[in-house]
Structure formats: C-alpha cells, structure tokens
C-alpha cells in the first residue's frame, strides 16, 4: 500500500487539473495562435506560468485504484500488475483465468 499522503497529493492534482483545464487550454491556444501579436502571445505565456504547477495534467501520476502503487500500472484496468494478479487468483476479474503448466 502506498503512502496515504502520496495518494491524497495525486487526488489534489487531479482536482486542480480538472478545475484549470479550460483556462489552461484557452491560454495555450492563444500562445500557439500565429495570427495574434507577439505581445499578446507573450502575455498569455506569462499568465500560463502564473497558474498553479499542480494544475498541469503532466504532474498527475497514474496510480492503482486498489493499492495506490505507482508502477506496473495497467491503464485499461486502472490497477497495478500485483493487484490484478491477486484479484485474478481470487476469481474477481471477469475473463481472467489462472494459468498453470
């Protein structure tokens, strides 16, 4: 199990990213707009830099929903390889069968 503080920090980052997504998208579009003047684009870039760092989607870490583990993460199932194996052995993942040879 991961540290509770790490899991909570990631939750805060997800919340901030969702909250600032429209503002961040608008500012990024303005900075990439070639028809806007250089001053407008630079001002938009400065406003973008003033946004909280944790509101950037890049800072969100994929974590297992079951254990909070940050590594060995399967996006489709939203869990780590270890949690997937344990649940698969218990028969709680539909379509997953334990192999033995």
From TrEMBL:
One of its GO terms (molecular function) is structural constituent of ribosome. One of its GO terms (cellular component) is cytoplasm. Residues 1-23 are annotated as: Disordered. Keywords: Ribonucleoprotein, Ribosomal protein, RNA-binding, rRNA-binding. Pfam families: Ribosomal_S14. GO terms for biological process: translation. Part of the 30S ribosomal subunit. Contacts proteins S3 and S10. HAMAP family: Ribosomal_uS14_1. Binds 16S rRNA, required for the assembly of 30S particles and may also be responsible for determining the conformation of the 16S rRNA at the A site. Belongs to the universal ribosomal protein uS14 family. This is Small ribosomal subunit protein uS14. The gene is rpsN.
